[in-house]
Amino acid sequence: MKKSFLSLLFIVPLLVTCSNLTEAKAAEGDVGYSVQAKIPANQIDKRQTYFDLKMKPKQKQTVEIEVMNSSNEEIQVEASVNYASTNRTGVIDYTKNDLSKKDKSLKYPLPELAKISDDQKHLTIPVNGKKTVQVMIEMPEESIDGVVLGAVEFKKKNTTETKKAKGVSLKNEYSYIVGMQLSETDKQVKPHMNLLRIKPTLINYHTAVAATLQNNQPVIIKNLSIDAKVYQQNSDKMLYQTKKANMTMAPNSNFDFGIDWGNKPLKEGKYRLKMTATNGVETWNWDENFTIGKEGQDLNNEAVDLQQTNEWLYVAIAAGVLLVLLLIILVIRKRRKEQ
Known about the structure:
By secondary structure, the protein is mainly beta. It contains five helices and 21 strands. Strands 1, 2, 4, 6, 10, 12, 13 and 14 form an eight-stranded mixed β-sheet that branches. It has a four-stranded antiparallel β-sheet with strand order 3-5-11-9. It has a four-stranded antiparallel β-sheet with strand order 18-17-20-21, with no helix packed on it.
């Protein structure tokens, strides 16, 4: 568990372009400010720059993060505590998420255990100055196995740059993420995955089927590989296949694994999904039927680069060929009778 957490970069500046999050290894001079966690005594590995804390039930603790302004102007920074989720590409996401959309198995999301006082959520930092943000942690009464995972995010306000490319405005925002992992016991928790649902969808306006996968245990799943195959029901002929490797799932999270439909229309009908997921130790297999109904047509209308099939054209051509053959046969029979 510890190794999977250490493999992630936990104090990094992030570049947000529109609504898509991408990591950007920007230097302090690029964003005008930086952050530094003050590592406490109960840090599991004091060489790390993120919080990896050994806690006890009902323990209360305050940790501190310094925010330093290296720019030549006063800046405003927003601070928030976020829980870790898994995005649709199979990467752990530490940016702010809607708490109401958390996975049902997540009993203790980090924002409910770690809080920042209202007067420190919005910081004004003078030129070459710094502010210290305090994060107050309070563990629940019951003992917790596994980990609680999340981060403290610092986002600079009113410093966005808007660029135009091919008529599209791109808005860049810079923020820092300071990871936080809380654990109480050394008990090894085994991950477990569930297939929650299968539904037709669009991914970047391209037709697909989404299989919602859930990790319902308080443990990170790393080195995750998935192989998904779609068949027509009662047929062994594979229609579509999507394989991905080197994915990671946050504890107690779910994400939509997209199965590419090859830019083909989502036809109404009954299908079968055979899917295997493995982290190299545990393996999960599913064999489930699903149906694409009229909602598939609505998605087809919104899709781009859709390769429309010409089934009716093929039927019309076949009917025309058959009609010509019948006419030839009738003409030949008529001539034979006349002879």
